[in-house]
Amino acid sequence: MEKAPGSGGPTGCREAFLTVMGDDGFLAGVLILLHTVRKYATVDRDFIVVVSTEVTEPIIERLLQECVRVIQLDPFYKNELARQLVSRSERYRSGYWVIKMYVWRLEEYSKLVYIDGDVYFRSSADPLFCAPADVKAPIAVTPRSSQDKSAGFNAGMFIYLPSRSVYQDIMSRFLGMSEEQMLGTSEQDFLNLHFKGAYNLIPIDFLMKHRRMVKEKGLWDINRVHGYHMNGNPKPWSTMWRTACAYPKDHQKLIKQYEEFYLEWWQYYYEYSGETMPDKHEDYRLTPMDDPTGKFSNWDPSVADRSCP
C-alpha cells in the first residue's frame, strides 16, 4: 500500500538514505555503505535497499537482519522494451537501471539521499540532508569535473525530493527512447539530460571518485573528503583488487596506490565483521555469509596470477 506523502517510513522518519541492488554480487558493498553511514550518523534515519527480483531470498534475509527497509520489485513489469534489451545488453540484465529510477516514487519521505552501493563514508553523511533541493532544482549532486562545468554531474549520489510526477516524467522519457538510444545511454547520462540546468551542486570533494583521488592525490585535501565512490572495476570486495590487469589500462601502473587506497575499505569491513584483520593483504577475504557468489571461498592467493599480459 502506498503511504501518504510526507507520512514517513516504517519508523516514522521522514528522511532516509537509500541504495539499490540489481543482484547478489553487491552485498558486501551495501553492507559497508550501511556500516559507515551508521557509524558516523548523529541522527537516526531509515536506510532503504531497493532490490530487483535477481536478488535472492537469502540475501534479502541478510539485509533484513541489518534492520534496513527492503523493497523488492520487478524492474521489467509493464516494461516490455526493457525486457527485450536484456538479451542485447548486460546493463539491463539485472534491471538496475530501472529500479534506480523507482526511487523517486517514495513520497512517504520528504527528502532522500540516494547512494550507489559502491560508496563508503569516512565521516558523517548527515550534512547531505542540508543540501538545497526544491521544485525548480529537485536534486543536489556533485559535479563530474572540478574544471569543466559542462561535464554535468555524478549520478552515483544525489539528494532529492521524491515525487511521483518526476518519476512518471523520467519513465515516460525513458520508454520514449529508441532501442538504439537505450543501448547507448548510461543512467548517469540519462539523468544529466533529464535534469539539465535543474540541479544544485555540492562540493566535488564531499564524495570523491576514488580514481580521481588515486591519480591526483596531491591536489586534494583528504580531510575534506567525507566518502569515496569506487565506480568501475575492480571493487575492493573482488578477488582481483590487487591485480593490475583488472584496472583500466592507463591505471595499471598505479596498482600499488590502488592497493593502499583500498585498505581503508577493508578496515571498515573487518570492523563490521568483527573478524581479526590479517597482517598480509593477500589474506583479506569476505566471510562466507558476505560472499554469496563464493569467489573468496574458491580463491587461492598463492596461485593467483597478478601479472598483466
Q: Calculate Rg over CA atoms.
A: 19 Å
Oligomer: single chain
Mean pLDDT: 89
Tally of helical runs? 9
H/E series, N to C? EHEHEHHEEEEHHHEEHEH
- Structural class of the secondary elements? alpha/beta
Described by strand count, sense and barrel closure, the largest sheet is: 7 strands, mixed
Runs in which pLDDT lies below 50 for 5 or more consecutive residues are none
Beta percentage is 15-25%
Give the spatial strand order of the biggest sheet: 3-2-1-4-7-6-8
How much helix is in the residues?
A: 25-40%
Shape: globular
Number of strands: 10
End-to-end Cα distance: 55 Å
Keywords:
28% helix; alpha/beta; 9 helices; 309 residues; globular; single chain; 10 strands; 7-stranded mixed β-sheet
How would you sum up this structure, described in words?
28% of the residues lie in helices and 16% in strands. It has helices at 27-40, 57-65, 80-85, 96-102, 164-175, 179-183, 187-194, 210-215, 255-273, and strands spanning 15-21, 46-52, 69-73, 111-115, 119-121, 139-143, 153-160, 199-201, 207-209, 227-229. A 7-stranded mixed sheet has the order 3-2-1-4-7-6-8, sandwiched between helices. The termini are far apart. The chain is of the alpha/beta class and 309 residues long.
